[in-house]
Amino acid sequence: MQLSRSIVDRVAIVTGAGSGMGRATAVLLVSEGASVVAVDRDADGLQALYELVPDGSPLHLVVADLAASDAPATIVSAAHQAFGEVDIIVNAAGVSFPVELTDEGFADAWRLTFAVNVDAQAHLIAACLADLQRNGDGRVVNIASTEGLGATAPMAPYTASKHAVVGLTKSLAVELGPSGVTVNCICPGPINTGMTADIKDEHKAIYARRRTALRRYGEPEEVAHMILSLVLPASSFTTGAILTVDGGLSIRSN
């Protein structure tokens, strides 16, 4: 049985592509021959992608707020117009608002966090379902976090949303399995992204030495390569997997 490790001519949607792990993933998938629809609410961040891929690359930018209810339909329509039917979804967009339960802004933080981190993932998959199922080889990768496996205060909206992403992944893997669509989840640990940019380097170093086996923060590209592995046609018997890319944070006990 010969299994393909090529994504040439596959069509992928990558959300959160304006920065961090989403950007690294979009660039990597383009470099591997996929046609990529890059989605983000940050227009400038998306435009920067053109500086990271060769001229003429099959890259289409969609500026969209994933908290909006019409965003999934808009994204899928743009993908169809640009490249045709969708084969791969990478749900990398995410927001985080550190907030305590008693804070005045808790309700708004909860609503927006779930709208972007959970609702948008589910609705985008639903909007692409016919495409993903058409050949029995659709690929979905949802980005959660090690917060989806544990908890840190005061981050209840973010932590709860990432637990929900893990549950969504498992449920859809079972539901869509008979059609050949795989649904997997990556839980990144400490990664050098926009969410961690405000943490001082010395504090990052201390945290990494204390908490991770590799004693360092990861880079977005290291997450992107795990995503690539999961969207390959050859990864046809891996579904419902919850994979940590965390430098050993989740297994270190001392």
Mind explaining what this structure looks like?
The model has no long low-confidence stretch (mean pLDDT 96). It is globular and about 45 Å long. Strand 1 (11-15), helix 1 (20-31) and strand 2 (35-40) form a beta-alpha-beta unit. The chain contains eight helices and seven strands; from the N terminus they run E-H-E-H-E-H-E-H-H-E-H-E-H-H-E. The protein has a single domain (11-244), classed as Rossmann fold (3-Layer(aba) Sandwich). The chain is of the alpha/beta class and 254 residues long. A seven-stranded parallel β-sheet has the order 3-2-1-4-5-6-7, sandwiched between helices.
Keywords:
single chain, alpha/beta, 254 residues
Order of neighbouring strands in the sheet with most strands: 3-2-1-4-5-6-7
Instruction: Please report the first level of CATH classification, the CATH class.
Output: Alpha Beta
Given the helix and strand composition, which structural class is it? Answer: alpha/beta
Mean pLDDT: 96
Helical fraction: 25-40%
End-to-end Cα distance, whole Å, is 44 Å
Short description:
With 254 residues, this protein is an alpha/beta fold. The chain has helices at 20-31, 43-47, 71-82, 106-127, 129-133, 156-176, 201-211, 220-231; strands spanning 11-15, 35-40, 59-63, 88-91, 139-143, 182-188, 242-245.
Please render the helix and strand layout as text:
Blueprint: E1 11-15, H1 20-31, E2 35-40, H2 43-47, E3 59-63, H3 71-82, E4 88-91, H4 106-127, H5 129-133, E5 139-143, H6 156-176, E6 182-188, H7 201-211, H8 220-231, E7 242-245
Parallel strand pairs: 1-2, 1-4, 2-3, 4-5, 5-6, 6-7
Helix pairs in contact: 1-8, 3-4, 4-6
